[in-house]
Amino acid sequence: MTQKTGVDFYSVIRERQSIRSYDPSVTITEEELKELLREATLAPSSSNLQPWRFIVVTDSAVKADLLPIANNQKQVVDAAATIILLGDTEAYKRADEIYDLSVEAGMPKEARDAYVPRMKEYYRTMSPEKARSVALIDGGLVAMQLMLAAKARGYDTVPMGGFSPEKLIEYFQIPAHLIPVMLISVGKAAAGSGYPTARLPIEKVTSWNKLEQ
């Protein structure tokens, strides 16, 4: 099993970049992928409902089928794994399970009993558009944490929005309450891959106390 590199947080956020060319000889064990997902799911989410769901694609035949769904992006077949990130618009249905675990972790049962019924009703009556928005926002949070956790372990990633949601849903028989958020390939960069990138100066994207055009 690959060990964590021990690099500091600031090195991770500065060195992470989206990699589209991967060494196809590199594999990642199922156990390490599970550990990576455990670290990713420490991310925050609305009411701690954790609406993220994952399909981890490592099988070469499934990778080949996923390739055209992902607009023939070669990283889908060359990377060690591609993680399909889904957002559950009915995540509130697991509220009891989640908050029972929270009680085991130390939350006062009285607080759980007072909060959970109100919270479940709020999400149950939420509009479909709002539920989708919540799932997408929380999906973005867990995706970024996954990519940083991967980099800390010495792996490279790339998030992908270029895929057919309809074909993905059809192939994996994804139910209606789960919405595709993105694909994330994970592996080791091929030699010579990746180019330097730049970010806009913070002054060009930040206003103070009012929006400046």
Automatic annotation (TrEMBL):
Family: Belongs to the nitroreductase family.
Organism of derivation: Paenibacillus xanthanilyticus
CDD domains noted in UniProt: MhqN-like
Name of protein: Nitroreductase family protein
Sorted UniProt keywords: Oxidoreductase
Alphabetized InterPro entries for the sequence: Nitroreductase (IPR029479), Nitroreductase-like (IPR000415)
EC number in record: 1.7.1.-
Segments passing through the bilayer: none
Residue intervals of the Nitroreductase domain: 13-188
Top-level lineage group: Bacteria
GO MF, any single term: oxidoreductase activity
